[in-house]
Amino acid sequence: MNILFFLKPKADIVYIFDHFTLRRAIEKMKNCGYTAIPVIDNDGKYAGTLSEGDLLWAVIDYNAFDNKTKEQHRIKDILKSRQNTPVNVNATIQDLLLMAMNQNFIPVTDDRGLFIGIVTRRDILQYYCDKIIKGNE
Fold first, then answer.
1. Global confidence as pTM
2. Using an 8 Å Cβ cutoff, are 38 and 118 in contact?
3. Per residue in 92-122, pLDDT tens?
């Protein structure tokens, strides 16, 4: 099965650019309600995943309790090495299942390395639950 079946395209998800300021990222995360979102660079490539914890530690580390200080720091400067590993669009559903054990979502890139969307753990689990239920009928 092709993983494009599970893909939530970039146009339909929340993400940020790595040149966004700390303030802008906090506002975006607050408005969307997610605990982690993909980060892409100006070329459209996946740069990492930004979590609420990354934002919290950046505010503490930079003593950025006011908006003026938050405007001085960019997301590319606070991204941690720990991130959701992306997969190529040609990955298998089995690859996704193994990755979903450790990630809430899996970023997907095309053959040029450009970020095209995500596959969520929920969608993968739903697929396998449906297979199991249909197999027991």
1. 0.88
2. yes
3. 988 998 999 999 999 999 999 999 999 999 9
Q: pLDDT (tens digit, 9 = 90+) per residue, 52-99?
A: 999 999 999 999 899 899 999 999 999 876 678 899 999 998 899 899
Name 114's bridge partners.
45
Q: What is the mean pLDDT of the chain?
A: 91
Instruction: Name the residue with tokens 């979502």.
Output: 105
C-alpha 41/C-alpha 63 separation (Å) is 25
Three-state SS for the chain is: CCHHHCCEEHHHCCCEECCCEHHHHHHHHHHHCCCEEEEECCCCEEEEEEEHHHHHHHHHHCCCCCHHHHCCCEHHHCCCCCCCCCEECCCCHHHHHHHHCCCCEEEEECCCCEEEEEEEHHHHHHHHHHHHHHHCC
Catalogue all structural domains in the chain, each as residue range(s) with its CATH number: 3-135 (3.10.580.10)
- Alpha carbon distance 87, 27 (integer Å): 28
Q: What is the CA radius of gyration of the chain?
A: 17
